[in-house]
Amino acid sequence: MNTLQFKTNINCGGCIKAVTPTLNGEKGITNWQVDTANPNKILTINGDLTAEQVVTLVTEAGFEAQPA
């Protein structure tokens, strides 16, 4: 299992709610969280995905992500 971190523009509860179905629906993700208190809005993903796969998922959900 990998732990990956990304800078995102997921910055509030509404944004988290919007991205939740996409991230929860991905079988390769064991768990995830967004630190909205961090200025870089760090998304931490635990699972078996590559950084590129996570960026694609977040982009499909309407947000931006780049490896931290």
UniProtKB/TrEMBL annotation:
SUPFAM superfamilies: HMA, heavy metal-associated domain. GO terms for molecular function: metal ion binding. InterPro entries: HMA_dom (IPR006121), HMA_dom_sf (IPR036163). PROSITE patterns: HMA_2. Residues 1-66 form the HMA domain. This is HMA domain-containing protein. It comes from Hymenobacter amundsenii.
